Amino acid sequence: METAPRPAQEGTLLSDRNTGVTLEVHDAPQCTAVNDILARVGDKWSVRVVMALTDDSRRFNQLRREIPGISQRMLTRTLRGLERDGLVSRAVTPSVPPRVDYALTALGKSLCDPVARLGNWAIANIGKVEAARAVYDGEQD
């Protein structure tokens, strides 16, 4: 991948200060793949499920109780998506009724630290974001 400066979008000012972030130019299929992954891991319910599974495996109803507001259907869809993406494993223990446990895979565990750091950033900056929104909304009236 080649590193190159990106042109400013309309209304965006480029800063010459070093932010420590390297922008990389990617081809379109790679960007689409990254967008798909970010959509999965950035989804509100996916983040909550991943964080609920951080310490140990959970059964479906345990997850449902630990994640307020999630419906059975949404939890099912979220778990299936996370399993499809290799972030969550599903283990069925034959019994009556069958026992199904969900746990993070190694890939899923590697996501916990970045998600927690982003959550901590949000908590630390919520006041600034709310203030900026109030200023913006006031200018729009």
TrEMBL record:
Domain named HTH hxlR-type: residues: 31-130
PROSITE patterns: HTH_HXLR
Domain of life: Bacteria
Positions of transmembrane segments: none
Family annotation (InterPro entries): HTH_HxlR (IPR002577), WH-like_DNA-bd_sf (IPR036388), WH_DNA-bd_sf (IPR036390)
Gene3D superfamilies reported in the protein's UniProt record: Winged helix-like DNA-binding domain superfamily/Winged helix DNA-binding domain
Protein keywords: DNA-binding, Transcription, Transcription regulation
PANTHER family in the cross-refs: TRANSCRIPTIONAL REGULATOR, MARR FAMILY, TRANSCRIPTIONAL REGULATORY PROTEIN
Protein name per UniProt: Helix-turn-helix transcriptional regulator
Lineage, top ranks: Bacteria, Pseudomonadati, Pseudomonadota, Alphaproteobacteria, Sphingomonadales
